[in-house]
Amino acid sequence: MITTFSDREFNRDVTKAKKASLNGPVFITDRGQPTHVLLSLAEYQRLTSKHQNIADALAMPGVGDIDFDAPRSNIGLKPPDFS
Question: Predicted confidence band at 47 (pLDDT cuts at 50, 70, 90)?
Fold first, then answer.
């Protein structure tokens, strides 16, 4: 679950933000734009581990809430050159 705090809310209640980070990333905004992300240490270590695979990355809490439209790839096949 992604939680969002304005910078003002974050400064007023850091403890609440830290507790929220146990359930997923906490986005901290400045003038409505995300500027920082607060993660629990366990989540940070999981994300930065060298043995992470794509399935683990996609299983991260809140990933389903992210809009992502990948550009369509145009890979054409070329006939082999046997000359």
Answer: confident
How do residues 1-45 score in pLDDT, each as one tens digit?
Answer: 889 999 999 999 999 999 999 999 999 999 999 999 999 999 988
- Note whether residue 81 is domain-resident: no
In a domain, 77, yes or no: no
Neighbouring CB atoms inside 10 A of 29's CB total: 16
Give the CA distances from residue 35 to residues 4, 5, 27, 42, 49, in Å, rounded to whole numbers and listed in that order.
11, 11, 7, 21, 24
The tally of domains found in the chain comes to 1
